[in-house]
Amino acid sequence: MVKVFKFGGASVKDADSVRNVAAILRKHSPGKLVVIVSAMGKTTNALEKVLNAWYESDERLPAFIQDIISYHQVIITELFPDSKHPVHFKTDMLFGELEGHLDTPPALHYDFDYDQVVSFGELISTTIISELLISEGFNCQWFDVRELLRTDDSWREGKVDWDLTGSQIREQVSSFLESAEGQPAIALTQGFMGAAADGFTTTLGREGSDYTAAIFAYALNADEMVIWKDVPGLLNADPKYFSVTQKLASISYREAIELAYYGATVIHPKTIKPLQNKDIPLRIKSFVDPLSEGTLIHQNTSADSLIPSFIFKVNQVLISISPRDFSFIDEQSLSEILAVFADNSIHISLMQNSAISFSVCVDNNERRLSQLFKALGKDYKVRYNTGLELITIRHYDQATIDRVLLEDGKTVLLEMRSRLTAQFVVK
Ligand code: ASP
Ligand code: MG
Fold this sequence. Notes:
Helix content: 25-40%
Strand content: 15-25%
CATH topology of the largest domain: Carbamate kinase
Number of strands: 16
Distance between the termini: 50 Å
Number of helices: 13
CATH class of the largest domain: Alpha Beta
Structural class: alpha/beta
Radius of gyration: 23 Å
Bound molecules: aspartic acid, magnesium ion
Number of domains: 2
Strand order of the largest sheet: 3-4-2-1-7-9-10-8
Largest sheet: 8 strands, mixed
CATH superfamily of the largest domain: Acetylglutamate kinase-like
């Protein structure tokens, strides 16, 4: 019986939470366990800030790096008061590597540099956590995920080479887990990152550690995967935006993938497919209240429509694109336009067209959007509105729509309804 557990940033944000992870592993881990860990707390955001300062030759760069180092050092000293413990040497090496990297000029391929820098968060967190588990007597082995998870060189959204990844994981991780025979064993590794064929680090996209866990579950034919969160399970709305939320006790893979696709941030959208393909149940459980049931995501669709779900995506941009020569938006122009989106790695969350205009809603990624506007500008007139929200309501009825839209007096700029889903781009 192999299970895969994933612990996100919030579950390892300070020394107490790391100890709580160890306590959960002590109580809930089966014989053989793979543990995937994210960067601690908000480290990934902090590393993005470092990367941008590096790019912009911002004089605050050393201070930003120091913030990250100090944050981790507080946790390390609290967990390992003995200054001779090997964790100090190991993490100092990593901090030194990060500083050394940032001491040289960037390669000036932003997405490539991103992966080389931002991935340090996971290397540091897993080093600290594996040392803690070992010092607490767990049979734990730290793996460098770059030797297991192979992707192509699509920086910041590496596409997984499933065959090679599967065989590397089975070769190295299974052989460790099996060598433990009847004893408990924990294979611990980094979420979010992998490596391209040339050995350079890639990442799988923000919040990608869930996906990493699913990749391991798939490769190992795991019996179950658990994502440990700071919420009681999958909720029908984000508590950040809604005061009243309900937990979904069980939903289907299909429903989960729809919710994640529309922007529910509890699970990374790519997580479900590998699990569905092998019928591996996914549980979302609370690390604050590990005995509570959480949410079960599985094949069964019978409970899907019981509760409407609301998904808010903020910082959206509505773009409308019209041919300069007043020709129709036809299949030919649509495929040209969509190719420009694909070339610039811009994901469309909603699209709609009329005779001479094509409208899409996307996340606001300024760097990529300015390239897109440049590429489209020759043949198309492009207009856009920023600072919008995309609201998606699954299993809607008019009353829930009215409640969401009218309560805050929102102006609807674009609306789309299918049988199960209503979407609104609002201001
Ligand atoms: N640390 C990465 C992020 O914050 C990956 C993850 O947490 O899943 O996006
Ligand atoms: Mg996270």
